Structure to design on (282 residues):
DNA sequence: TATTGTTATACTCTATAACTATA
DNA sequence: TATAGTTATAGAGTATAACAATA
């Protein structure tokens, strides 16, 4: 079992998750915050929209946006068209933090995959892309 | 970020973990219990030994062995050489459960990797084996 | 009545600290 | 004193339920 592909994927996935978390420590955020910042960089989205796009649930999203607001990376703005909704908008420093995050995450990924050659890294991306499809991940929640 | 190898590995690893958990539901255990049963199938080991071999900490191991005892899959036996230690021994039904678990986990893994051909599955195992090395996982806790 | 955002709550997982019994 | 096992407890993460405001 310990050498099975599935077990290794679970184990490495967990370790990589922690590593990505730590790679963003200096910015006070985690990868989930980066995913939100990426979505709102170009699009105008409510929290509910963000839930749909990221798969997080509403209460988690409240906490994530709370964090982004507290850090000055984003603001909640009442939607003009539907006053129930609050549009989440990045601040200037939020966009800076986003771009720094992407650099840090790229660096962390390079470190994680460094045992493999560039060709092998490409192969791995191809294989994992075919496993981690949206519909598969949805039906294995 | 959403298409990066690292993110996909984290995401798929998490989904696979849940899938493996559910695959063992009928036996009332989880993969960690299987790892313990595998270790004690042939060797005589104390809980501390099992901690060293699996990386779980002492308190987690207490809970895991509690579960195995409650289900009748293992027993704690006082060590004759060191009365502080308690050797964990599998029962007959524990060995049966172990062999069933291994079948269920193999089946679950086959399902998870089914989008890939046999050759590709072999490739993936090779690549992930080189990433998820014991020392790398140890230094990324 | 349904939806958006929110709060409060419960539940799991994991890690820490403290206790016992042995060495 | 150090180690093995245990218990109690606290922390983070996540999910559920209930509520206010709006559609």
């Amino acid at each position: 079992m310990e050498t099975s592909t599935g077990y290794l994927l679970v184990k490495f996935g967990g370790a990589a998750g922690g590593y990505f978390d730590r790679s963003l420590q200096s910015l006070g955020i985690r990868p989930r915050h980066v995913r939100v910042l990426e979505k709102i960089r170009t699009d105008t989205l409510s929290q509910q929209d963000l839930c749909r796009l990221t798969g997080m649930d509403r209460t988690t999203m409240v906490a994530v946006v709370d964090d982004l607001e507290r850090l000055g990376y984003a603001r909640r703005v009442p939607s003009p068209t539907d006053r129930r909704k609050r549009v989440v908008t990045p601040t200037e420093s939020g966009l800076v933090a986003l771009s720094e995050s992407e650099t840090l995450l790229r660096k962390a990924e390079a470190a994680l995959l460094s045992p493999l050659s560039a060709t092998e890294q490409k192969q791995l991306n191809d294989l994992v892309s075919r496993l981690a499809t949206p519909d598969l991940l949805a039906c294995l929640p």
